[in-house]
Amino acid sequence: MPPVRRSRRLAAATRTVVEVVVERRTVRPPARSTADRLAAAAETARSWRARVTECADRAYSAVRGRIDWEAVTAELGLPLIGCLHMFDASLSAVVVRRLPDLADWSVGDERAMVDFVLDNFGTLVGDVWRLVGVYMNVSEADCLAAYRRLKGVRMPISVYESIKGYREDGVPWKDIHNMFPVYKSTAALLNAFHCANKRSPSVLGGKKAQAKWTPAETKRIKEILKQHYVPSCILSAVDAAVREFPDKTRTRILNKIRNHTDAVNQEVQRQRESGLDIDWVAVSWAVGLSELECLELCRIDEGKGRWTYDPDTFSKRMADRMEAFIAEHYPPPAAPNFNAVSNYMWVDISDCIRMAGMLRGEFEWTDEARARVVRMREQGMTYKEIARQLSPNLNPVNVAYYIRNLRRSRQHVPLTLEEKQRIRSIVDENSGKVSFLDVAELVKRAFVGTKSMSVANSRTNTYSAPHPLYKARAEAADKDQIARDILSGATTAAEVARRLDVPTILVSAMVDKFQAGMYSKFWTDKETEQLLEYTRTHTPPYNWKAFSALLGTRSQVQCKRKYRRLRASGLIPGKP
């Protein structure tokens, strides 16, 4: 085929394809926006609500007073719950009924509501009761109130007597339930019947009113115990009391005797006087009570040991024994009877309570414990080591949290700008006229009765240090000699400050500056070896102040920091 003819045919085919594509594009409907789609969906929902409501109005039965929703679902081909959701009461001509009292409900309505709820809903929350109201054509509140009453209707005594007569005649419970449809099921009827049985005084199975023990009867019980009790015959005293009090049950008499008997104490005392370890099984057999009851009733505290926590001598086996006893006899959420625990461990009850709290991770932060924690922390101990020294199961995080709060509590409360200006004005007016101690006293008096009294008193040093008069006095003093005297223990910073009549903070600055120039930043091998030897021959908490004085070339802070670095590098055992 010639090239010209092929090109003509190709051009014609191309024009045909383009025309078809253009034609299809012109026929295809334009894409709708999200707003258009939402509007279309809303219109569809409105149309369905109108259809369901119209169909429900046609299915309304004036005799029954409600809509035949089964006919609605059959006509529309939709599920029942979906129809109830789409029903619009504002478009319907059906009037919603009000049935506030259960007596207003017919038997058919009661059964219909109960069956509808049980068949369609697993839980009775959310939008359930609105749908129940639509189904029953009753207000939502009335449906909820009626259903609650139907679940637990209290049976009147007259109805109870009638049902009792039916049962004596041999009528089955199912037939009786058909006579009293107010109860939603046979089980509900039985439950109401048994509750009425307990309330009815004429029923043989009903509970009789139990008279309280009079003071004379209580006194007589004690006399019977004295007459008939021997260590192995507590039950003989019970038998004697039962014969004397025929109107009291044996259980009540036994409980009464347990509250007044010292049988357990006498048996325990007899075993202790014999020089034997207390055998609670033997005590249980002797007094006729269980072993746990004997442990709870015993009130002997003589000869019990003490149990204090010492990390070096702490017995994990003893702690496990107490925890096992508590877990076996007092599982959570029951509270342990620590009198029984104390008798079982034969340890003072206060120590048992304290140790049980420690084993649960609790700890009482006393003043002594606070001071001890501060000392151990200053010696470079980790939070885990401190926790181990304080309690067997104390969480190190709690120790860190406590120390952080302790530091925050020691921090001074910020003073207002007016209070700062007031302190500075008092210092400026009186410096040079009176001693610095008198200036501090004047500042304290100026804030008497205010929350800032202690804060202002402690801040006097800080706000007085920049004063030119006190700075000149500090500069004129022999700083190096003062620092040597303080470091050697010949004097204190407070005494030097009183002698120079300057704030103590200026004297402390002299010592810090002298130490910074006296000690080198780099540790020698000899100093490091002395530190390692000190940690090997001493146990935590370390006294870094004493070691610094022994070393003579390092400050307390430098020793503590060096110890931490060595422990982090692995030269000293322990976690960094």
UniProtKB/TrEMBL annotation:
* InterPro entries the UniProt entry points to: Homeodomain-like_sf, SANT/Myb
Pfam families named in the record: Myb_DNA-binding
- Write down the superkingdom of origin: Eukaryota
SMART domains registered for this protein in UniProt: SANT
In terms of PROSITE patterns, this protein maps to: MYB_LIKE (PS50090)
> Domain named Myb-like: which ranges?
523-567
List the protein's name: Myb-like domain-containing protein
